[in-house]
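Translate sequence into structure tokens.
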Amino acid sequence: MILMLRMTRAAIVVCVLGVAPASAQPPAASTALGAVARIYQDFAAEAVIDTPELSVLDLFGRPKAAMARYLDDPLVALVLADRECSRRTQGVCALDFSPIWDAQDPVGATVKMSAGKDAGRVLAEIRYPQNVVRRLTFVMRRSAAGWRVHDIEYDSHTSLVTMLKGKAKR
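Result follows.
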């Protein structure tokens, strides 16, 4: 999917120039920053489309193979265990928000990314219209298939892996 996004405080404009199948493999990123940028490029619709029936499925709600394009194997296993916990308990276990946005509703969010001090860390600053700012650190691991998310650290609560390890065992 090729999207041109123009986001200002006053308006969000989306021009869809072309559409690729949702199952299309994203190009391999040569840097951790490039891999995180690809995640936000592929899932920006979560923040710009405010019509639920037209929005895209969250990365963490996708099938195992789709998640494996962005997440490392241990993180995929933890997400799948959380899903199983939710199925078993008929309720929410750890994931009741979109981890890449650190929010339940990312509409109107913008993201600014930068490389961390080491090659495997990427900083993301998420800004919401109400002047709310969230700071995330993507902990990346290089695999044979390219850079993958190993964990996400948040400025206001425990990391994604810590949350998933603690709740998925219920």
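Note: Residues 2-167 form a domain with the Nuclear Transport Factor 2; Chain: A, fold (CATH 3.10.450.50).
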